[in-house]
């Protein structure tokens, strides 16, 4: 697999959006990014591998 | 005919991705499907199901290949047709067969690509047990999906697929959710497709151009020249405007190739395609997309039963597809976007009589898409507000210390993490009265809510709720609302839960219900008074103006020494996240002992270790007493989900000073690691460290070295004043420097991590000067 690291994200951008949103207006997709990182321990390294994932259906 | 497999083309090369066609039929009959609907009709002659024997043989071939090439990892994709047609039991057996030989020699990542129709909790449990990540096909909203993705009788598959995605979002299966695969149809409005996919909250989306060749060009409405580029650009702009809420491989690939990186896609870019397909009868094939070219195009004539993967990799078309730009036709080679496009998907280049030596049939679209995406993403990068100086944060922390501004900033990030997680608990478990009240108090007095959400265990509670299906802990939010109401001095009435006799109002105090009951209750806060009404209509009343506690109320115990202030937390049930049993409610004697120890420890830190004081002042908020160790050993721990807290068993001031410094190093680095990757989380590297007998994973070594550097520093400052320092300083110093050397040569640090470790090494080296 060509799993070179292509980009690296940080959580700082999404958190800035969340900081400025009232609690009820935090967007689910912004919260999701934090959940994936903090609860699911997702990597922020954006590996791009030529994925078989794309190869059907 | 060019491109047909069979000709030898030199030496073998490594392949690391294998698509196993575990079932060759499908329960849908999508009219854009290239397995059944395109030129290649070989599925008709294949067995329906891959037998366990063939699966075992395939796995042994893959394992042998991985061993020969010392591959650090291989990926196996369970595929079809529709793999879930196997049913949970056969799937379980097949995956077990596949895993054993491969996992004996290398790391295996398992994936499945499915239409989702048959996804169920039984299937989810099997896949979870084997660690199989799942990609689901969905083409957008109902009309978009119904356009192609139907059952043979014409019925829609939309509801079943959405049910599958809802299951994958559940906490117990969320780790399996890899993403959505969406085949583009330019008749579907791109904004609507984007929104429908976003609503499914996929970690990643893959957009696929419909399969086409020069013989069968793609659908192009009217006279539009580049409909596919236009369609994708609408989504690209929206994705950027939304600040990239999920990963989209196609765009990430273009952003990457614009800077000379890999593309991560067969559709665009010159990345080597190191992929083989193994059919249900064991025959090796080329990538599936070749089915679109001509009947028999993917065939290789080889099989796992008779040939090695090396044999396969020698075949000419497979080798050709490894060679990126060099094998492109003349038109592509002279194209200004060739490095980013590289002729598009191999199969899309096919034309009868010319084989694959052509530009893609999507050439005009690809050219425009690449150029436009480059332009839009540079505008986006230029317009992005500069993130708070990452370099400065790294430099501050790597020095071992961190000033108040930096640690204050980290604490602020943690509050935002907590806000996000709280809102995710509502999303997962549904709204609660406490949440509504909390939001109302926030509208009146945001600072009051912010003070409460800074309580370290709010995050720990939220993480716990996000890992369970059981919503019974949700009324914890009522306690947060009541505490915020007290700070804001607004009347609050809401529901709470008495949790084993306790209701926590973080930063204000703890209510103790008589008896360790767990039950619903109502809380009211109004003008400095508090009422808790629980089982049997009994009410506890507290006058917050009265100092001191009672049997039913313990006001927050705050210790303030020379401008440093911490709370002792002995009530909140969510505090039980440090790996040791928390002490119960302290009596006044025990609380006084903690006050003395903390005051003494703080004075020692200020006098002897002043470099660590600003960070502790800005970041440490809570001390959580632990039960003492029966054998009298020290106990202290930092919980990564509770930044700003430290747990410890009772201990004297001198030891406590060291524990505070040591543990808060873990907390600082933990908070930094929430935001940035300093190391590759997928790395298997283990690192020998002096302080543990067994080799440690990279993150543990990094944490250990950071904390031990501080301990080294402590003993350095005690040289001459404490006789133990003569032995302990060199020992800790050696452990630290050895571990730094090992980390540096591990190959598992990111550039940011390497910078961090280099700076830490420089700080340690300066101690000798
Ligand atoms: S679900 Fe996939 S394999 Fe099945 S018919 Fe549709 S595209 Fe083909
Ligand atoms: S844009 Fe067209 S000519 Fe250029 S590399 Fe892509 S397919 Fe070839």
Automatic annotation (TrEMBL), chain A:
<protein>
    <submittedName>
        <fullName>FXSXX-COOH protein</fullName>
    </submittedName>
</protein>
<dbReference type="InterPro" id="IPR026334">
    <property type="entry name" value="FxSxx-COOH"/>
</dbReference>
TrEMBL record, chain B:
<keyword id="KW-0408">Iron</keyword>
<keyword id="KW-0411">Iron-sulfur</keyword>
<dbReference type="GO" id="GO:0016491">
    <property type="term" value="F:oxidoreductase activity"/>
</dbReference>
<keyword id="KW-0949">S-adenosyl-L-methionine</keyword>
<dbReference type="InterPro" id="IPR026337">
    <property type="entry name" value="AKG_HExxH"/>
</dbReference>
<keyword id="KW-0479">Metal-binding</keyword>
<dbReference type="InterPro" id="IPR007197">
    <property type="entry name" value="rSAM"/>
</dbReference>
<dbReference type="InterPro" id="IPR026335">
    <property type="entry name" value="rSAM_SPASM_FxsB"/>
</dbReference>
<dbReference type="GO" id="GO:0046872">
    <property type="term" value="F:metal ion binding"/>
</dbReference>
<feature type="domain" description="Radical SAM core">
    <location>
        <begin position="12"/>
        <end position="252"/>
    </location>
</feature>
<dbReference type="InterPro" id="IPR058240">
    <property type="entry name" value="rSAM_sf"/>
</dbReference>
<dbReference type="GO" id="GO:0051536">
    <property type="term" value="F:iron-sulfur cluster binding"/>
</dbReference>
<protein>
    <recommendedName>
        <fullName>Radical SAM core domain-containing protein</fullName>
    </recommendedName>
</protein>
<dbReference type="InterPro" id="IPR013785">
    <property type="entry name" value="Aldolase_TIM"/>
</dbReference>
<dbReference type="Pfam" id="PF04055">
    <property type="entry name" value="Radical_SAM"/>
</dbReference>
<dbReference type="InterPro" id="IPR023867">
    <property type="entry name" value="Sulphatase_maturase_rSAM"/>
</dbReference>
């Amino acid at each position: 697999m060509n799993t070179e690291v292509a980009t690296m994200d940080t959580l700082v951008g999404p958190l800035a959006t969340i900081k400025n949103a009232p609690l009820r207006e935090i967007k689910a997709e912004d919260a999701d990014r934090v959940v994936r990182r903090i609860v699911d321990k997702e990597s922020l390294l954006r590996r791009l591998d030529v994925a078989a994932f794309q190869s059907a259906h | 005919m060019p491109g047909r497999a069979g000709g030898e083309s030199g030496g073998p090369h490594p392949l690391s991705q294998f698509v196993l066609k575990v079932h060759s039929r499908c329960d849908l009959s999508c009219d854009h499907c290239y397995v059944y609907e395109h030129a290649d009709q070989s599925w008709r002659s294949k067995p329906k199901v891959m037998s366990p024997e063939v699966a075992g043989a395939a796995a042994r071939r893959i394992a042998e290949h991985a061993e020969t090439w010392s591959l650090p990892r291989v990926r196996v994709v369970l595929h079809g047709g529709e793999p879930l047609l196997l049913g949970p039991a056969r799937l379980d057996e097949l995956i077990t067969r596949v895993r054993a030989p491969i996992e004996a020699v290398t790391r295996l990542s398992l994936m499945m690509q499915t239409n989702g129709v048959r996804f169920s909790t039984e299937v989810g449990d099997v896949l979870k047990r084997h660690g199989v990540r799942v990609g689901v096909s969905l083409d957008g909203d109902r009309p978009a999906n119904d356009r192609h993705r139907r059952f043979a009788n014409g019925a829609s598959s939309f509801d079943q697929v959405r049910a599958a995605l809802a299951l994958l979002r559940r906490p117990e299966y969320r780790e399996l959710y890899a993403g959505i695969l969406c085949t583009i149809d330019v008749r579907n409005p791109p904004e609507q497709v984007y929104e429908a996919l976003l609503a499914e909250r996929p970690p990643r989306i893959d957009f696929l151009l419909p399969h086409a060749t020069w013989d069968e060009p793609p659908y192009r409405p009217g006279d539009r020249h580049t409909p596919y580029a236009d369609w994708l650009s609408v989504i690209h702009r929206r994705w950027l405007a939304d600040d990239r809420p999920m990963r989209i491989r196609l765009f990430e690939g273009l952003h990457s190739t614009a800077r000379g990186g890999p593309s991560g896609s067969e559709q665009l870019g010159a990345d080597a395609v190191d992929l083989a397909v193994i059919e249900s009868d064991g025959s090796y094939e080329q990538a599936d997309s070749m089915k679109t070219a001509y009947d028999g195009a993917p065939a290789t004539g080889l099989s796992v039963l008779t040939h090695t993967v090396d044999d396969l990799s020698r075949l000419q078309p497979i080798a050709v597809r490894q060679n990126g730009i060099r094998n492109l036709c003349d038109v592509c080679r002279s194209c200004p976007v060739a490095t980013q496009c590289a002729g598009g998907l191999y199969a899309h280049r096919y034309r009868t009589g010319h084989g694959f030596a052509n530009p893609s049939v999507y050439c005009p679209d690809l050219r425009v898409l690449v150029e436009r995406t480059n332009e839009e993403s540079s505008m986006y990068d230029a317009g992005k507000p500069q993130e708070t100086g990452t370099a400065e944060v790294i430099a501050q922390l790597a020095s071992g210390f961190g000033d108040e501004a930096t640690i204050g900033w980290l604490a602020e990030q943690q509050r935002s993490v907590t806000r996000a997680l709280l809102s995710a608990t509502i999303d997962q478990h549904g709204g609660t009265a406490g949440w509504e009240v909390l939001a109302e108090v926030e509208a009146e007095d945001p600072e009051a809510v912010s003070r409460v959400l800074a309580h370290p265990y709010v995050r720990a509670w939220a993480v716990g709720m996000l890992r369970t299906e059981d919503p019974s802990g949700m009324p914890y939010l009522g306690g947060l609302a009541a505490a915020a109401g007290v700070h804001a001095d607004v009347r609050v009435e809401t529901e709470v839960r008495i949790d084993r006799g306790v209701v926590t109002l973080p930063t204000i105090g703890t209510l103790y219900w008589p008896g360790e009951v767990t039950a619903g209750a109502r809380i009211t806060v109004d003008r400095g008074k508090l009422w808790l009404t629980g089982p049997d209509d009994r009410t506890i009343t507290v006058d917050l103006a009265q100092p001191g506690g009672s049997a039913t109320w313990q006001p927050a115990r705050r210790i303030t020494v020379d401008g440093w202030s911490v709370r002792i937390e002995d009530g909140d049930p969510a505090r039980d996240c440090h790996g040791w049993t928390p002490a119960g409610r302290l009596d006044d004697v025990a609380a006084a002992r903690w006050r003395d120890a903390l005051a003494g420890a703080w004075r020692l830190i200020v006098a002897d270790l002043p470099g660590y004081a600003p960070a502790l002042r800005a970041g440490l908020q809570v001390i959580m007493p632990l039960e003492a160790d029966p054998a009298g050993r020290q106990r202290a721990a930092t919980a990564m989900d509770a930044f700003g807290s430290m747990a410890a068993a009772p201990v004297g001031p001198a030891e406590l000073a060291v524990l505070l410094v040591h543990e808060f190093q873990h907390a600082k680095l933990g908070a930094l690691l929430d935001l940035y990757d300093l190391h590759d989380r997928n790395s298997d590297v283990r690192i020998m460290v002096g302080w543990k007998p067994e080799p440690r994973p990279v993150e543990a070594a990094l944490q250990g070295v950071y904390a031990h550097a501080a301990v080294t520093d402590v003993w350095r400052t005690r040289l001459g004043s404490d006789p133990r320092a003569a032995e302990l300083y060199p020992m800790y110093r050696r452990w630290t420097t050895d571990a730094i050397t090992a980390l540096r040569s591990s190959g598992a640090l990111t550039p940011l991590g390497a910078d961090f470790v280099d700076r830490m090494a420089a700080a340690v080296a300066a101690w000798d000067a």
